Write the structure tokens for this entry.
Amino acid sequence: MLYEFLFPFAENFQFFNVFKYITFRTGGAILTALIISFILGPFLIKTLRNFQKEGQPIRMDGPSDHIIKKKGTPTMGGILILCASLGSSILWMKLDSQFVWTVLLIMVGFGSVGIIDDWIKLSKNSSSGLNGKIKLSLQILIALPAIMSIIEASPPDILSGLAIPFLKDTFINLGYFFIPFSIFVVVGSSNSVNLTDGLDGLAIVPVMIAASCFALIAYLVGNINFSSYLQLNYVPGVGEIAIVLGALFGAGLGFLWFNAPPAEIFMGDTGSLSLGGVIGISSVATRHELVLVIIGGLFVVETISVILQVGYFKLTGKRIFLMAPLHHHFEKRGWEESTIVIRFWIIAVILALIGLSTLKLR
């Protein structure tokens, strides 16, 4: 919005020329989202506490100390992240960017599914929310038009292509299979972040790390000079996604202020489903879906731990882990919550660095 209003004055006022730079507007989006979070946070927490007398329902089969430590903490804090990210993105983005509007569609759509899920949990005072099949169906219905929009906005030579990390000039044409594959990436990313969100600050920092990585990737892929030098597939216009991801980073930083142990608020499915979806659709738009598996490796491991636990229990009646997802296994082993969270953050940083190395090692 600021670009449309202020950049036309660049001919007379040279300062306004900075609005054409994605890097400047991304920095502005980060700071704006952070400020919105700080301003809106206390009011939202107070409102949610008044509305949610019992706070987020706690799993009765989870770690026993959660019932004592986390009972009464309000959920649906993802609303804070969504408001800050949306407001900041619209302020700093180019309003004609199809890529950005597509990412925002996923953010709002998946966030709405999360709100419904959290609402059901609160109304039933149960950790069981929206029916799994219904939730998955809604996510697929929202992801489908987003994927079609990405395809429409992409260059003809990479409409349905899959890039392979560490290999240059290797681009697999998936044909019509690209659509279900991309939906799987977006929906899978969303639910993986949802599974990881189980301890104070555990999910939001890896999300911020992934968002910053894909903001860089989007900028490089959307710049013909950098993409040519790094031998990346050039996607005109996709660099604008960096604005949204920057806003998400700033909003996440603001949310972490209130979510740091002991948390004043939880993001709930409202936040986790939305944030995971944004990371997923960004990987599809930049054609770095497989790099997401590396950068978001922490989310992948958490999801695999649940799949293995459920599958093994159905086959043998026994469990591989003391509890799934994986972070609860370490809690059951006696690790302090802060130890688990910080070590998982360190792992997320290491995986992000490995993922970013694929941009050059080709």
In short: The longest helix spans residues 22-51. The chain has a mean pLDDT of 91.
